Amino acid sequence: MLGTAVFLYPFLTIGYSNYMSDTLREQATAMVENKQAPPTETKPFSRGLYPEPVPSSVEKPTKGKVIGMLEIPSLQIKEAILEGTDEPELAKAPGHLPDSVLPGQLGKSIIAAHNATTFRHIDRLQPGDTFTVRTEQGIFTFKVTGQRILHVKDELPDTAYPALSLETCYPLDALYLTDQRLFVETALVKSELKSEKVRKER
Predict the structure, then answer these.
(1) Domains of the chain: total
(2) Burial class (CB in 10 A: 0-12, 13-18, 19+), 171
């Protein structure tokens, strides 16, 4: 009985994820396309080192809440992002690690997803590839800088600039829990903050 459950788990995960993704995608689209706060003209960030980051004062979302949309056209990914990386979140959609900064803030934000669902092909992302994350704060474009494989107990280095890591179990074709993780590393290359209110919070 236990063996059957273990065998069926990946397929049940895939089915549940597919079932939930449409509903969550609609929620994320409604949130990031809020017409009451349209994007304003992007202004150069005064430091000149990286695009303007999201203020650190932005309030952290509650666990399980839709916080944005992840769009990777080259992998045909357009999925809602939930706050949290526990099984209740990852069974539905990619999740933002609460201990990391929000996408677009200074430091490294981490978005995780199962290797059997959304992130089954993220190893195809190569340096120079770009994708976007849309949140209530704005639209953020990230460029891939490389990949790394770490043990679950290894520490992922933080950054002094806005960055984002996509995380999943490794190897990608494993139909079981593994003790290694693949990280696709990226850096923020374009920032379109959504409103003057967000800018003034800096």
Answers:
(1) 1
(2) exposed
- The answer to whether residue 43 sits within a structural domain is no
Q: Which residues pair with 192 in a beta bridge?
A: 139
Which tokens belong to 12? 């049940």
Which domain does 78 fall in, by range? Answer: 2-38+54-200
Q: Is residue 148 part of a domain?
A: yes
Q: Which tokens sit at 170?
A: 């490794």
pLDDT at 175: 83
- DSSP assignment of 27-47, as one string? HHHHHHT-TTSPPPPP---TT
Give the tens place of pLDDT for each residue, 25-79: 777 877 677 644 344 344 444 457 899 999 999 999 999 999 999 999 999 999 9
- Looking at residue 27, what DSSP letter applies? H
Identify the three-state secondary structure at position 174: coil
Tokens standing for residue 41: 């003209």
Task: Count H helices and E strands in the chain, helices first.
Answer: 3, 8
Tell me whether residue 47 is in a domain: no
Residue 171: which CATH number? 2.40.260.10
Tell me, what's the pLDDT at 69? 98
Indicate whether 200 pLDDT > 70. no
Is 131 contained in some domain? yes
